[in-house]
Amino acid sequence: MTHRSANDAPRESHPSPERLRAITYATGIGIILVVFGHAHDPALDSEGDAVGHFISLLRAFVFTFHMPLFFAISGFLYQYTNQLHRRRTYLELGRGKAVRLLLPYVVVSSLVYPIKCLLSRFAMRPPEWGWGAYVESLGTAKK
Fold first, then answer.
1. Which of 79, 83, 59 is nearest to 71 (CA)?
2. What b/e sequence results for 115-128 when a residue is b if at least 16 CB atoms lie within 10 Å of its CB, and e otherwise?
3. Is there a single domain that holds both residue 26 and residue 63?
4. Global pTM?
5. If 0-12 CB within 10 Å is exposed, 13-18 middle and 19+ buried, where does residue 133 land?
6. Of 71, 87, 103, which residue constitutes the final position of a domain?
7. Structural contact between residues 23 and 77, judged by C-beta atoms closer than 8 angstroms
8. Do residues 67 and 119 both lie within one domain?
9. Closest Cα partner for 23 from 96, 87, 81?
10. Are 111 and 135 in the same domain?
11. Same domain, yes or no, for 77 and 112?
């Protein structure tokens, strides 16, 4: 009968530094393409201009893949970090994200909202006082 130690357990493979560098490069290229796609000058979209037509086609091409690229990168990084630490369930992940992201958002929004209302006379679209307006300011409901 053979005994296996904890060190003999099969290890999960982690991406090499080169693969992580490729992810960093892909993210940088994706960010540049997003900026290119959103830096739009309507004057360049003239129908008769070949350069404007090419730029319009290039922008359309960028918009076909730049969001899926970021989804793929985030999925890869989720798997990578989940393997590095410990395997978490989606419920644990969701709870952790809510505490880390939503709680500070609600706290900061709750602190800023009264100040926003007090300074509303200087605003172009002044906020209203009230719970309904406060909830709307959190982004959960829009008029």
1. 79
2. eebeeeeeeeeebe
3. yes
4. 0.50
5. middle
6. 87
7. yes
8. no
9. 81
10. yes
11. no
16, 48 contact by CB (below 8 A): no
Looking at the structure of the chain, the number of domains it has is: 2
104 and 64 in a common domain: no
What's the rounded mean pLDDT across residues 93-102? Answer: 84
How many CB atoms are located within 10 Å of the residue 137 CB?
A: 17
Are residue 95 and residue 143 in the same domain, yes or no? yes
Contact 106, 138 (CB under 8 A): yes
CA nearest to 69, candidates 103, 25, 6, 131: 25
Say if residue 22 is in the same domain as residue 81. yes
Q: Which domain holds residue 143?
A: 90-143
Averaged pLDDT of the chain:
77
For residue 69, give both structure tokens. 């690229």
pLDDT in tens, 108-126: 888 888 888 888 888 777 7
Structure tokens that stand for 47 in this block: 């129908």
Can you tell me the mean pLDDT for 58-78? 86
Distance CA(73)–CA(60), nearest Å, equals: 21
Tokens 């357990």 sit at which residue?
9
